[in-house]
Amino acid sequence: MKIAILGANGNVGKVLVEEAVSRGYEVLALVRDKSKANFKEGISVLEADAFDKASLVQAFHGIDVVVSAYGPKNGSEADLVVATRNLIDAAKEAQIGRFLMVGGAGGLLVAEGIRLVDTGNLPEAWLPIVNAHIDALKLFENEEALNWTVLRPAAFFEAGERTGKFRVGKDYLLADSEGNSRISFQDYAIALFDELKKSEFNKQAFTVGY
Q: Hey, which CATH number is domain 2-209, 3.40.50.2000, 3.30.70.890, 3.40.50.300, 3.40.50.720?
């Protein structure tokens, strides 16, 4: 199986590349600037522009699965929605069999009818990217032709250990007995590629946390 990972040179993207390679997938790392890419020997690297649908269609040629770890620059959070629209359209045009995307936690429920973003507990500086992820997910929810999955992390999403011990949920934010909601990039990657194998959340969003 050949997998293209967009944003492969980012903090999350690099971990996704490592996990995919460890599982024996053929990986194509899609990056903004090839000169800044530093991957293990044997990993193909290609420049791709999330704002140029034609370049995405070309990059997706011969690919079975696309994983997007695209992240906008600070101050340009709305770019996530534009990029997501391009990615969806390019994936459909290239007839990609499966599309998985790194989502955000802000739209997850903390109680019935109350999302994390509605609690007032998030720092104001986080709100632009939180709302961009919520809007990007809406684009997927209106798609019928594409087999998509969005994996939303826990509230704190950071580099850490690969433990293989985590919980999977659907619409509610996952937190431990002390109220901490977190997941490492490494365990997130396990959950994402486990989903690729199991296909339990086709055309759905789900979440992972400790």
A: 3.40.50.720
